[in-house]
Amino acid sequence: MRKFTGLGVAAALGLAAAFAAAPAASADAVDVLTTGSVGGANVTVGDVLQAGLTSGTTATFLDANGKGVTCTTATFTASVTANPAAPGAATESVTNLTFSGCKSNISGVSSVKSITIDNLPYSATVDDSTDTITISSSVHATISLGLVIGSATCKYTGPTAGVVGAVSTTDGSLAFTNQVFTRDTGSWAGCPSPENFTASFSPVVDTSVAGSPSVFLN
Description:
- The chain is mostly beta strands.
- The termini are far apart.
- The model is unreliable at about 1-25 (pLDDT under 50).
- The chain is built from one helix and 16 strands.
- The protein has one domain (about 30-215).
- The chain has one helix at about 5-20, and strands spanning about 35, 40, 50, 60, 70-80, 90-105, 110-120, 120-125, 130-135, 140-145, 150-155, 165, 175-185, 195-200, 205, 215.
- The strands form two sheets. The chain has an eight-stranded antiparallel β-barrel with strand order 4-5-6-8-9-12-13-14. A three-stranded antiparallel β-sheet has the order 2-1-16, with no helix packed on it.
């Protein structure tokens, strides 16, 4: 039978204790964004995330008197540029934000031709300490309108601190509420200002993964 010296036993016990105290492998860490559930599979950098309007809701650009534009369809698209371990902040590149099925109650306006988010892409930060998404400052939007006679263009600039939305820790939905967009010079005088942007997007899904699972904030 092999004999152990007192020194050998102490060394073996020390090695065992070191293994027991070692932290879990980084591969087991839960990142800020996961798919399938809270604490699910980590979202991979480069994945493309997408969401439409929450069922039964609309996207609106309205002034304090309720004048402006309402859209029945909108799509948010972003690619993930960083997804560190939670707690932390993931970053995204917002590559598209589209609107359709829009109508206006502005006097003299007969149709909404288009709403365009200019100067894409924008960087965005998803912070799990505040449960928010912030799209970088100076987001620009152009609303093209058909008038009873002719056409008009309304150009707007968002908050200098960025367009901020709430991120649900339950289902990962994005909710932007009353984000103030101010009319730019050179716009049609009939364009309401300021306009408050409100929209809720869900579910947010990872289109780069088979089955496009929902994305959650940890």
